[in-house]
Amino acid sequence: MAMRELVRRPGRALLTMIAVALATAMLTALVAIADTGRTRVLNQITHGGALAGISVVAAAPNPGQEGLDNPTAGPSRTLTAAALRAMSTIPDVTTVVPILQAGVIVIPPARLPAGSSFCQPARACTTEASPTSPSPPTYGTNVVGVNLGRAESLPITLLAGKYPAADSGTEVDVTTDYLSRLGLRQGSADEVIGSDVELGAFRVLARNFRIGLRWSTVEIVGVVNQQVGSGQFLAYPGLVASDSRWTAGGRANGDSDAPLSPYIGALVEADQLSHVGAVRSRIAAIGYSSSAPEDLIVSVEKYLHVIELILTAIGVVALAIAALGIANALLAAVRERRREIGVMKAIGARDRDVLRTFLVEAGVLGLVGGIAGTVIGIVIFIGIGDIANTYLTSQGLRGVPITLTWNIPVGAVVGAVVVSVLAGTVPARQASRLSAREAVGG
Amino acid sequence: MTGPAVVVTGLSHSYASREGVLHVFEDVNFVIESGSYVSLMGRSGSGKSTLLALLGGLEAPQSGRVTVDGTDVGSLRGNELADYRRKSVGFVFQHFGLLEAFTALENVELALTLSGVALGIRRRRATELLGDVGLVGRLSHRPYEMSGGERQRVAIARAIANEPSLILADEPTGNLDVEAAETVADLLASLRSERGCTVLVVTHNPTMAAHADIHLALDQGGLTEVEAPT
User: Fold this and answer.
1) Distance CA A408, CA A381 (A)
2) Whole domain around residue B88: which residue ranges?
3) Which of A328, A361, A387, B229 is deepest in the core (most CB within 10 A)?
4) What are phi and psi of A99, to 5 degrees?
5) Cα A172 from Cα A267, distance rounded (Å)
6) Is residue B213 part of a domain?
7) Tens digits of per-residue pLDDT, A2-33?
């Protein structure tokens, strides 16, 4: 009966549904934008890593600085595989990702990309075997090794290309510092992808301190920003461990600076933010310093929560205004249908039958308007995201991932129905209390 | 059923108005035997519709007692009253009282739906009833697609859907032309003869009144039996 009455007055029903749809659209879009903004802000704090991520360094903890987000590390201490195993057994730890690092000598490619500032004129970089072809000098940097299969929870951001293939010993990613070395801007990242570069792991030879180099040619497959270690190259641990072992061999030849361990640190992830403090204490007990932006994250989350609440409240207010429209429309319907309601009661309808009819009408208005509004809200959210990403990209910044969790659209529709039914309560009760005498008149 | 269908004793009713208290009728007493056809006449404002409303449980008597098939209507409340109206009484209104959003079939089904009859059974029963009133070709038509006489026949079909013992009709031919009025009058008369219903009709229509066994008139607050109108 409710559906029939709505169809009977399509104009009124449509206007009411549009009001609900617009309110729901606003609520959906605002909540989605707030949710995405929250993710983006927290992502910035953790540099793309996990919220409950902890950075461990190869240094002893500094007494008196426990509990600080970024304590000053104590004296250096070799990070061993045994220590990493011990960390993995700490309760509430989900993963331990070791970070390796090895020093290398870099010979830049013989032919630079045409966009390089070294190329004057640009043609000089495209001519085969030109005696005047410019090139940046050979230099030293580090190769950082980490399990890139877990890149999504590490402070690594892929700017162009891809990550090296799993356990590859010949593929690397480079940082934007490498681009600068070649005289390229960040926007020219694609120009280095696919190019080869010579990396030389060095070792002290014999007792005359001559340096031996072991060369390997690697292919650049991507450009990243990374906060994992200090180095212009990023690769899987296998490649780095190999270079590190070669270099460590110099210790036997008197190189006291040769590393005792390839590990410079680790990224430990706790199962939840509230357990980060306890995990850090256990790491300190094992003998290593750690840092984590837990206090900052907690503070920022509180502020973000307030912002989310405010934006949600704005959307709810809009929905409440639409609900007033539903109440008004149904009150008008009750006035128009007094005799009809009286007849229903005269033929035996109970008060609750009449109540249910009007509540269902309100619910249908909320459901149809809520679904339409949610769809519109999602379109608005995606549209705003596209505009924002276009701007960010034009400024050389990384865009914002446009993702929507299922609870937002479901919550919007459910909210629209609930608010609509609540709005219909007063007119429904008024209708149910009408006297059956209305049927007879006179 | 034998014995009295309706017993009214000491019934009085009044309304508050701007001019003060309006006494509609005072100390009305009458008995209607089961299976009777009674016409009720009176001037406009004499309380005919009010009396119908009191018998049908649409309004509670302020004083006196109304008993229908042994049930003290005045003592019923809430759902009991709704149940009484659904099972014991069938209403036919001057304005037809059909729901405009429903088809003829759905209007008749509504009475059965309120009684909790299953879909298949109520659809079949409603179809039969509409066939009984000669509207088998109008099942899917809405009220605005039907003439006044057809609408009133749908209303009659709805009124008898739950097989009530008492039919209360308030000026059922008031909005109908002569031909339609005769059809409706004959139909209501057949309810008494074929279904054994007790019928009480408020009417100014002589054709309608001619079918009645007993003729009552409300005048100046009192109810009297009168001769059949000519």
Assistant:
1) 12
2) 35-62+81-226
3) A361
4) -120, 125
5) 20
6) yes
7) 777 777 778 888 888 888 888 888 888 888 88
How many other CB atoms are found less than 10 A from the CB of residue A36?
20
User: Chain A contact for B53, CB < 8 A?
Assistant: yes
Which conformational region is residue A167 in: left (phi greater than 0), alpha (psi within -120 to 50 degrees), or beta? left
Chain centroid to Cα A111, Å, comes to 37
User: Closest Cα of chain B to A35: distance in Å?
Assistant: 45
Q: What is the number of structural domains in chain A? A: 2
In this structure, the answer to whether residues A206 and A84 fall within a common structural domain is yes
Q: Which residues of A touch B83 (CB under 8 A)?
A: 348
Residue A340 sits at the chain B interface (C-beta within 8 Å): yes
What is the ipTM metric for this complex?
Answer: 0.89
Who contacts A190 (Cβ-Cβ below 8 Å, separation ≥6)?
A160, A161
Condensed to tens digits (0 to 9), the pLDDT of residues A239-297 reads: 888 877 877 777 776 666 677 788 889 999 888 888 888 999 999 999 999 988 777 77
| pLDDT(B227) > 60 | yes
List all residues 6 or more positions away from B197 whose beta carbon is below 8 Å from its beta carbon.
B35, B90, B160, B164, B165, B166, B167, B191
Question: How many domains is chain B built from?
Answer: 1
**Shared domain check, A33 and A60:** no
Separation CA B33–CA A81 (nearest Å)? 105
Q: pLDDT band at A127, cuts 50/70/90?
A: very low
- Does this model's pTM top 0.80? My answer is no
Q: Are residues A30 and A135 in the same domain?
A: no
Contact yes or no for B97 and A346 at CB 8 A: yes
Q: How confident is the model at residue A355 (pLDDT cuts 50, 70, 90)?
A: very high
Please give the residue that has the higher pLDDT: either A171 or A151. A171
